[in-house]
Amino acid sequence: MNRRRVLQHLLGGGALLTAGCTVFGENPGAFTFALVNRREQSFHVEFTLWGDNDEVIIDGAVDLASRPPEEEYTVLDFPNLVHVTNGDEIEAQVTVDGETYEQTHEITCNQSENAENNFFFRIRSRGAPTESETGMEFAGSEC
After folding, report:
1. How do 117-123 and 29-37 pair as beta strands?
2. I need a surface site. Which of 42, 77, 122, 130 has the fewest CB within 10 A?
């Protein structure tokens, strides 16, 4: 086998090994942000999200309704805010009743069959397992 054929085989195998990972020319996908309330109490929520270039994606304030008695949660979706690719970062600042929470979310699921480009701020039920004592937490799509 000559050198050219060996290189072709190696390059072909490398393409198989990177299948499903970020590729150049990746098509951007829609990004959705959501506020989720799992408590039986309403909250005043202020929020701002920024993209990679520090451009504001969304900036607003809402009174997030309480969880209805027969439901698991109330959700307020903000779909298709911006188009993103893997590696993009979204910075978020959310203030709930005067307490501020911040986090950066890296997009990793663009073009994934298993997940979408979602980022959530959740107000968890009291006593639910969370990383914070307040029950307030960010979560994003994982794939």
Report:
1. parallel
2. 77
